[in-house]
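In the current project phase, we have settled on a layout for protein records. A sample record is reproduced below.
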Amino acid sequence: MGDWGPEQIAALFTRDGQYLCARWGRPVAPVIFGLADETLDVFRSVTRAALAHAGIPLAETDPEMGANLLSFFVRNWAELEGIPDLARLTGQDDLPARLQAQAADQYRIFRFDADGGIRACITLVNMGGRLADAHPAELAEALVMRSLLTFAQEVPPSPSLAVLIRAAYDPAMPLVARDPSHALRLAARMAVAR
């Protein structure tokens, strides 16, 4: 994607005409379900590296939720029915059927603290379709990077994305921004970081 200007950055965080760029405001306690041990190790390593890159503290547990970065891997969306309290966890009663109808390969849900920072992120991944042959490290990188900020669209991992994430986690930047002018500040920080 090369160098990103404010317009390209604003588009990454704009959905239905609303700009939202929120970052984690608490340490991240990840948990991953549904992967074989060797793949699980890859995902854990990539997750730790991505959190360290952004400067986000890693925790064993979250005091309120236990885990707050939850990733579920299934072979088909029907398997989600086996997750206890899925509707309560996601806040959506008919999620497996909707994902099946949309032929989605992944779905992400963010929860927020009162101050607007990310409180939790739940990622659901269907490994039975287009992602069946995905390289574990590349898939892990894409999934974890997309969970670090409230992107409005799927963003492929790249050096530019890594710089953007670091810029958003600069202590001088706000925890949450709803005004597109925030993208100007991100672009300026990215230019300095290059």
